[in-house]
């Protein structure tokens, strides 16, 4: 009987621990939507206003809203702009604190007054799909070498400009061996489909639309582009302790929101596709293909990123787009590396 009392007492003492353990297990299995994203600082951020811009909503606020991670301890003013160059124009004018875009715009922006009022603070690893050199259906052009003397449309000062130059170089052709014609994405698509040009270097909707009308891939840019996109910030925002902490928190939420989308692709597609006038099944297919190639995530800046950026600069110098030597490493700011390295990395 004495042993039985001891056993009962032991079980009563153990019960709270079992309950706590079960509670932790349940919490760990909760949707990532419930994840608490810690800020970099214990400072009160309630008075902070973080002005952010991107070329599309899924590069920020729309994604956070869909994932339920938009309830920040600071105010966010989010602006969608038509291109990374406009994001950096706003940054140069000190109208935003934080922005995101490809590797190309900061090269040109940094050559402006006051260095473009920008620093690259983080790398966003993302997909390189739908960045292609394409030709019309039934084109006699079967290889990049066949483009010699041909008209090739491209989008100036973008990734398309860069990968076209690299494709020509790799094929033993110079920039002057073809007739390059700078066009917008929409004008380039129209010119390809009407036969005004022989090939088109472009990306995104232009590539999808061209394929829908029979265009074929001459060469994809997957083995040329790094997949690096950037988050940029102004020097003032970087130096301000509270804004710095808010930026870290926002990027952490953005990183987590991408994982939520990967776990809930149908919900993400249903939320975002109507915002860009795209059919949900079409967006979902596109999203799944992109995610299969690369899981979008935020990582610290590393040496490979800087080398990749310098190669873009050197390529543009070769084709005469940029004059003079540029050490592009000066536009990178590494003060966020340690904090970003603590973000959960999804492989």
Task: List its salient traits.
347 residues, D-Maltodextrin-Binding Protein, domain 2, six-stranded mixed beta sheet, 13 helices, 11 strands, 42% helix
Ranges with pLDDT <50 over ≥5 residues?
Answer: 1-40
How helical, in percent, are the residues?
40-55%
Could you say which overall geometry the principal axes of the C-alpha atoms support?
globular
Q: Count the DSSP helices.
A: 13
Would you tell me which CATH topology of the largest domain applies? D-Maltodextrin-Binding Protein, domain 2
Number of domains: 2
H/E series: HEHEHEHEEEHEHEHEEHHHHEHH
How would you name the oligomeric state of the polypeptide chains in this document?
A: single chain
What is the CATH architecture term of the largest domain? Answer: 3-Layer(aba) Sandwich
Radius of gyration: 24 Å
Mean pLDDT: 89
Look at the structure and name the CATH superfamily of the largest domain.
Periplasmic binding protein-like II
Strand residue content: 15-25%
């Amino acid at each position: 009987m004495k042993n039985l009392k001891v056993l009962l007492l032991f079980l009563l003492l153990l019960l709270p621990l079992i309950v706590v353990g079960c509670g932790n297990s349940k919490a760990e299995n909760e949707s990532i939507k419930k994840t608490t994203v810690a800020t970099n600082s214990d400072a009160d951020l309630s008075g902070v206003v973080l002005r952010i811009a991107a070329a599309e909503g899924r590069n920020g606020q729309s994604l956070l809203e869909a994932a339920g991670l938009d309830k920040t301890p600071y105010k966010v003013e989010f602006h969608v702009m038509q291109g990374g160059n406009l994001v950096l124009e706003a940054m140069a004018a000190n109208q935003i604190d934080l922005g995101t875009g490809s590797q190309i715009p900061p090269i040109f922006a940094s050559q402006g007054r006051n260095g473009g009022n920008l620093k690259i603070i983080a790398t966003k690893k993302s997909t390189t799909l739908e960045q292609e050199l394409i030709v019309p259906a039934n084109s006699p052009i079967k290889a990049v070498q066949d483009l010699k003397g041909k008209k090739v449309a491209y989008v100036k000062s973008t990734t398309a400009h860069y990968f076209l130059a690299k494709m020509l170089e790799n094929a033993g052709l110079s920039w002057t061996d073809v007739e390059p014609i700078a066009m917008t994405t929409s004008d380039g698509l129209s010119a390809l489909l009407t036969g005004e040009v022989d090939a088109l270097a472009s990306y995104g909707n232009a590539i999808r639309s061209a394929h829908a009308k029979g265009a074929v891939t001459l060469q994809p840019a997957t083995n040329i582009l790094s997949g690096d996109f950037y988050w940029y910030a102004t020097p003032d925002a970087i130096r301000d302790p509270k804004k710095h902490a808010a930026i870290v928190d926002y990027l952490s939420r953005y990183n987590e929101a991408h994982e939520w989308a990967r776990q809930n692709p149908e919900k993400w597609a249903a939320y975002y596709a109507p915002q860009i006038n795209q059919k949900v099944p079409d967006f979902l297919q596109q999203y799944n293909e992109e995610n299969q190639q690369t899981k979008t995530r935020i990582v610290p800046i590393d040496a490979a990123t800087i080398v990749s950026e310098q190669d873009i600069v050197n390529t543009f110098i070769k084709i005469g787009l940029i004059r003079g030597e540029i050490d592009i490493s000066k536009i990178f700011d590494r003060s966020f590396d340690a904090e970003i390295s603590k973000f959960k990395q999804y492989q």
